[in-house]
Write a structure and sequence with these properties.
By secondary structure, the protein is of the alpha+beta class. It has a single domain, classed as Glutaredoxin (3-Layer(aba) Sandwich). It contains 4 helices and 4 strands, in the order αβααβββα. The chain starts with 9 loop residues before the first helix and ends in a 14-residue tail after the last helix.
Length: about 120
């Protein structure tokens, strides 16, 4: 019998990092080249796996409470279907990681070691 034991609290497992994008977005492509390939291998991805959503496609039903907005890329940390926070645009890798860390620290029961609420 295979028993699965979660490594993270259940609320952290339900978190996602949404990347709102559109075809032809220069900054989306830049993010893909600089961060997109490594993101799935990071500790941040274990807390909030990446989910890309095209803003011009039909909006997913499970994201109905999340505002689309006109700008891409926009990164939204979602937990249990509720927005925790967002960052608009991509100004480089250092800026991205710093802001993402701030957003992940807002997650309840976050496994991020920098979370002062633990």
């Amino acid at each position: 019998m295979l028993i699965f034991t979660p490594l993270h609290p259940s609320s952290a497992l339900s978190a996602e990092l949404l990347m709102l994008e559109q075809v032809g977005c220069f900054w989306c492509e830049k993010w893909d080249k600089e961060i997109g390939l490594i993101y799935p291998k990071t500790d941040e991805a274990k807390i909030a796996p990446l989910r890309k959503v095209n803003i011009h496609e039909p909006w997913p039903k499970d994201l109905e409470g999340i505002n689309v907005g006109p700008f891409t890329p926009t990164f939204v940390v979602v937990n249990n279907g509720k927005e925790i926070g967002r960052m608009r645009g991509y100004a480089g890798d250092e800026f991205f990681w710093t802001l993402l860390d701030e957003l992940l620290n807002k997650l309840p029961n976050s496994t991020n070691s920098n979370n002062p609420n633990q």
